[in-house]
Amino acid sequence: MASDLEKRAKEAFFEDEFERALDLYSQALELDPKNADLYADRAQAYIKLQNFTEAVADANRAIELDSLLSKAYLRKGTACMRLEEYQTAKAALEAGSSLAPGDSRFTRLNKKCDELMAEETHNLPEKAIHEAPPSAITPSEDVGPTHDTSYQSAVFELSKQKYRHDFYNSPTELVLNIYARRILAEYVTVDFGEQILSVSINIPGEEAYHFQPRLFGKIIPEKCKYQVLSSKIEIRLFKAEAITWTSLEFSKEKALLQKINASAAVKSQRPSYPSSKSKVDWDQLEAQVKKEEKEEKLDGDAALNKMFRDIYLDADEDMRRAMTKSFVESNGTVLSTNWKEVGSKKVEGSPPDGMELKTWEY
């Protein structure tokens, strides 16, 4: 059962067994692929394992399934901040904050995101790049890899990917082709982040295709575009910096950018971009958020659920077995921590005064 796997995943997560939690969440999603909570929780496991791109993908999927799930926006904002995708993180955190206005985690992360955005833009020139002249790239319906010396071309054959893709780029633009034939535009979703591209193809009755690379460099999302053609999906990424990318995806080994002569595309000498980012102590920030969560004053069902969760986390194995058995067998009306009392017999339901317990048959 997916619910049993989810429960075991949560236990593994609370015990800091993040790899095991990730595996259990993945198994649960195979049984219940439309569960937004599972995607949001797996995103948190990815964050703990420093797999931030995967965390963003899961958070996006959770938001697609349930646009009112505030924790999905929290996961996306957190992961995007770690990827230095501050604009995307800001949008996610603001959306989540509007859904959970009393959640102090959104307030704190929003403030930190504002600080990082201010540092990032402090030393940027007013006009970083200029648009390439019309002759820089000549699009056509069947654009493919070019032999022009002003382009860097690469082809990827990924066994795990359903569709083949390749790209070529000029100093100001990269063109990515995903060779999906005769796909209706309504089945295709493309989202642009500061340094993340997300492509989804959801054809009814077929396994969904997701491609979400962390890009080699930053782009300007509002200038990017795509079109669905008869033989492929053509995606045009407008670069934030006029350079040639040596690969599509970012990696530390390829962090040294290949500079080229961009005089044909840039009206003046390209300015440098000095970094003024301060190092963020993420462990301290996480500890502070956890402290706030622990000290947060809740009321009603939220307070009751927190109390039960704290009892469960501090309990030994027998107490946990007693809590689970009593809660399940009594249809949620009894919660006992005494295994000796409930272990040898079935726990009968005990509804509140004035209410009647009914058994539903399926």
UniProtKB/TrEMBL annotation:
Reading the lineage from the top rank, the first entry is Eukaryota
Keyword terms of this UniProt record: Repeat, TPR repeat
Q: Which residues form the CS domain?
A: 160-249
Annotated ranges, domain SGS: 272-362
Q: Which GO terms describe its molecular function?
A: protein-folding chaperone binding
Residue ranges that the Swiss-Prot or TrEMBL entry lists as coiled coil: none
> Which Pfam family would be a valid example here?
CS
Question: At which residues are the TPR repeats?
Answer: 2-35, 36-69
Which InterPro entries does the record cross-reference, listed alphabetically? CS_dom, HSP20-like_chaperone, SGS_dom, Sgt1-like, TPR-like_helical_dom_sf, TPR_rpt
What the entry lists under SMART domains is as follows: TPR (SM00028)
Q: Does the keyword Repeat apply?
A: yes
| Assigned protein family | Belongs to the SGT1 family.
Name of the molecule in the record: Protein SGT1 homolog
Native organism: Elaeis guineensis var. tenera (Oil palm)
> What's the encoding gene here?
LOC105037086
